[in-house]
Amino acid sequence: MDLGRLGILSDGLGSLSDADAATVAVELEESGWNTVWLPPSRGRSIHTNAIRFLARTRRLKVAVGAYSNGTDIPSGRGALTDAYNHRLLVHLNVERDRSVHDLAVALDTLDRGPRPVAQDRRLLTGSGLTVMRLAQERALGIRPEIITPAGIAAMRSYLGDLPLIACVIPVVPFTNADTARRVARHFLTSSLARPECALTLRQVGYTDADFHFGGSDRLLNEVVAWGGAGSITERIEQFVESGADHIVLHHLPCGASRYDGWRVLADVAG
């Protein structure tokens, strides 16, 4: 599946009503977004979550999230793929305080289901060696979060030309550095406490001092894209040049744009 160059992840997308989701899906497609990324949802099955963005569009890809210990992944998945010309894929996520080894169990479930999810229709969220090995053997690719261009380069060196790397970049569309870093730190604090995340960053030269209080300025400048459309585009290029195949722009909730990040970043998509 060709995900295109850019995808959008925004907290506001998950809270839309069914009617609003259908309208926004058309807007996303017309604005130039290639793929919309939906986080795992406790309130909706992946079928319900995806259909809201697929039914009214023709080209937009939908990457719908599921937790690695979820039980709703196989149900309805094959029918959705058949109906929407393979515009749907599943990205598996490990819940906090659970092991990345849950991913292998989830992949077994996908393989054994009544309508198995094909290997080229699934991605694994993470950045450690276990996740990379599973992605090489059993998925279309890997979806690293909280990673630097140097980290992407190291990942690409390990993986070779395949599998696909869909890199998530947190985005704060504020030009004031202090404001942007405050928003970024609020988001990063919990992620930097995760051992896998810290290990990946240590491998490219960061230390414990960089992880305190939501991250050092040095770390934030590498992990987060902030500023206007030009600055954000430059950051995208750095990750692409380092080996990323697809960029997921994760608009961080902030100010008046808390719930419509896809509109704020439309200039980047276009």
What does this structure look like?
The chain has 270 residues and is an alpha/beta fold. It has a single domain, classed as TIM Barrel. It has 13 helices and nine strands. Helix 7 (149-159) runs parallel beside helix 11 (229-241).
Secondary structure layout:
Elements: E1 6-10, H1 11-14, H2 18-31, E2 35-38, H3 46-54, E3 61-67, H4 77-83, E4 88-93, H5 102-112, E5 122-125, H6 129-138, E6 141-143, H7 149-159, E7 164-172, H8 177-192, H9 195-202, H10 217-223, E8 225-226, H11 229-241, E9 246-251, H12 261-264, H13 266-269
Parallel strand pairs: 1-2, 1-9, 2-3, 3-4, 4-5, 5-6, 6-7, 7-8, 7-9
Helix pairs in contact: 7-11
* Mean of residue pLDDT values: 88
Strand elements, count:
9
Number of helical segments?
A: 13
At the fourth level of CATH, the homologous superfamily is Luciferase-like domain
What summary fits the major beta sheet? 8 strands, parallel, barrel
Structural classification: alpha/beta
What overall geometry do the principal axes of the alpha carbons give? globular
Strand percentage lies at 15-25%
What CATH first level would be assigned? Alpha Beta
Which stretches of 5+ consecutive residues score pLDDT under 50?
none
Annotated CATH architecture? Alpha-Beta Barrel
Secondary structure: helix percent: 40-55%
- What number of domains? 1
Order of helices and strands: EHHEHEHEHEHEHEHHHEHEHH
Strand order of the largest sheet: 1-2-3-4-5-6-7-9
Separation of termini? 21 Å
Might you state the CATH topology name? TIM Barrel
Radius of gyration: 18 Å
